[in-house]
């Protein structure tokens, strides 16, 4: 079983019983998984190596291909349907053979899609339309994240001595453009948006994030009271969404804001009670999502906690009227600034190697966050595992 499948199994197994609707909460037992960690670095950190400034030529500033043309109920995000043998990547009207072992696309880039080859050790690179994989950066790298303009990728590479090297590479040529070494391992890369690269130590509970601008020197250590090691970047802005906790972890708040000094200037917060969950935020930073763990069916039957969208400017809360119950993990993904995709990627255990995953058909649902209207787009075929990517 891969890391991805293990994370999905653990989070789905952790779903708890119904809780009151006001305020919404998510009664899940926290699970600390590699790609969805619940820990960051200790407050005082020393940077070992001074970063090298990025100097980009016009050749480096590659413009990624536009989103693929779509019709009908097709997703506006790339996704992979994986059965036995090679999978098929769908990106609008385009279909590409996707070699087994490549994870979901991390984003569109010139020449293909950034992805991870889930070998041991893992590799980060570009999956191409002709079914090949071009590696970028060192073998064993993790947490690959694209720059806002899609021309660069940052990744985390454990050095084996309690340290981690964070490297920035050109997508087009694979050249290293900047790097720092941090005195802890592993180091997670939360996001890369207009503010910079958001970093932290994965295994230190209660620690704080850092913000690195490669062209300006060393990372800045931030201090966000109650930070609960959950940070999502609004990719088109300098804003991030974080989760904070109080009352010995029983009460939480979603907060969207931008860096001010070494803290977070909060634009909007939305609070409730419950355990760990995986929130998300729109690319333009205007909509927070509390994903809930179940659904409201046709507006008649409410199963709580209720998924909601929160308008950052006004504070308006809109219930998302999902047509059927959905798991809280994986968290929903924004197609664009106003459309959200819910998926169910659970699989059965005990599938022999080389055979299709033991799974029934799974729903893929689109919600419009300003109205709360949701619709079923399609159901995956039986025995096929869905890997939803980023645009």
From TrEMBL:
Gene3D superfamilies xrefs: TolB, C-terminal domain
Keyword terms: Membrane, Transmembrane, Transmembrane helix
Entry-linked Pfam families: PD40 (PF07676)
Annotated SUPFAM superfamilies: DPP6 N-terminal domain-like
TM stretches of this protein: 36-56
Name of this chain's protein: WD40 repeat protein
């Amino acid at each position: 079983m891969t890391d991805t499948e293990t994370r999905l199994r653990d989070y789905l197994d952790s779903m708890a019983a119904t809780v009151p609707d006001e305020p919404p909460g998510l009664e899940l037992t926290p699970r600390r998984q590699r790609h969805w960690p619940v820990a960051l670095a200790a407050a005082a950190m020393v940077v070992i190596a001074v970063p090298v400034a990025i100097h980009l030529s016009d050749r480096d500033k590659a413009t990624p291909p536009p989103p693929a043309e779509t019709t009908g109920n097709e997703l506006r995000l790339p996704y992979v349907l994986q059965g036995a043998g090679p999978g098929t990547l769908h990106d609008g009207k385009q279909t590409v053979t996707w070699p087994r072992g490549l994870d979901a696309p991390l984003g569109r880039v010139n020449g293909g899609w950034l992805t991870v080859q889930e070998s041991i050790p893992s590799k980060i690179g570009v999956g191409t339309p002709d079914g090949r994989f071009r590696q970028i950066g060192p073998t064993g790298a993790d947490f690959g994240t694209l720059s806002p303009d899609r021309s660069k990728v940052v990744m985390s590479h454990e050095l084996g001595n309690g340290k981690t090297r964070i490297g920035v590479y050109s997508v087009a040529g694979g050249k290293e453009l900047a790097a720092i070494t941090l005195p802890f391992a592993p180091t997670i890369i939360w996001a890369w948006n207009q503010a910079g690269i958001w970093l932290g130590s994965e295994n230190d509970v209660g620690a704080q994030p850092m913000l690195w601008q490669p062209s300006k020197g060393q990372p800045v250590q931030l201090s966000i009271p109650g930070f609960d090691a959950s940070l999502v970047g609004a990719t088109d802005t300098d804003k991030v969404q974080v989760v904070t906790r109080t009352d010995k972890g029983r009460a939480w708040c979603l907060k969207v804001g931008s860096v001010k000094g070494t803290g977070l200037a909060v634009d909007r917060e939305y609070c409730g009670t419950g355990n760990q969950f995986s929130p998300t935020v729109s690319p333009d930073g205007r909509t927070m999502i509390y994903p809930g763990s179940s659904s409201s069916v046709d507006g008649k039957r409410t199963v709580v906690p209720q998924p909601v969208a929160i308008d950052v400017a006004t504070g308006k809360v809109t219930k998302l009227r999902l047509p059927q119950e959905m798991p809280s993990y994986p968290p929903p993904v924004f197609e664009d600034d106003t459309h959200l995709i819910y998926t169910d990627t659970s699989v059965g255990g005990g599938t022999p190697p080389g055979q299709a995953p033991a799974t029934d058909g799974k729903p893929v649902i689109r919600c419009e966050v300003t109205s709360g209207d949701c619709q079923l787009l399609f159901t995956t075929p039986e025995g096929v595992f869905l890997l939803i990517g980023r645009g």
